[in-house]
Amino acid sequence: MHEWALAESIITAVTKIATKRKLKEIKEITVRIGELQQIEEDILSFAFEQLKKDIFRNTLFLILRAKTELECQICGVKWIFRRQNLDEDTIEKIHFVPEVAHAYIKCPNCKSPDFKIIQGRGIWLEKIKGAK
Ligand SMILES: [Zn+2]
What we know:
132 residues; three-stranded antiparallel beta sheet; binds zinc ion; three-stranded mixed beta sheet; 2 domains; hypothetical protein PF0899 fold; Rubrerythrin, domain 2; alpha+beta; 33% helix
């Protein structure tokens, strides 16, 4: 259910920006969500459609996913995690508990499972288009 809370906080955040920039209408909002972040995009879009009003009446709401970037704690190598290399069951586990990733992913250089997630979690506003 946190998709609804997220949609609300996006609207709140964009409303603040709109006030600051004196925008009368928001044409487009793009949010980027880390690949490992557990968010149902359909529910988030639906929640946004239900909540939008006033300056958001005609807003196009776009969701992009961000790749997961990892850094080995032993040798310092950075790499992009490719989820297609894992089977569906593993992806589910990682989705629910990102820490479980350590059991399945190893450094491509030194094979250490001791890495940190640099990017792949979190949600941020990528772009806002408005009109004055
Ligand atoms: Zn390494």
